[in-house]
Amino acid sequence: MLRPLLKSVIARHRTTLRDQDVILDCAPDLAVWAGAEDLDRAVSNLIDNAAEHGSPPITVTAHQVGPGEPAVLIEVRDHGPGFDPGFLPRAFGRFTRADSARTCGGTGLGLAIVAALARRHGGRVTVSNHLGGGATVALTLLVAPAPIPAAR
User: Are 125 and 139 in contact (CB under 8 A)?
Assistant: First the structure.
């Protein structure tokens, strides 16, 4: 199930983010086709990125894409300045950093790792800015098949 994993990642980040709120909105019954370690790393990278370059609150939402569609959308949104529009097309490239991020720590691999993990599991990742400020990185993954009930 997705919700316990997201709660665990957020709980781990709350110890280092101190004054930043991280809000979770995820139905309890969602499951995705991805390894737990890979998913943990991807969501951790997204929260780290939002905390480093955005402003609180950070919102993590997960929901099924639409009726009958076998995909779950996991979004991490911050309320900071967003990405430089010129950087958006290259945001997932390895070792790429927006000019405003060059004075901070990091190597420019966080979003590239998220993209690689998404592809590994048949998913995709996108990034966008909000008109009112902030950025959203959206990770789309396939829904995991429902477990087969044990025979009685």
Answer: yes
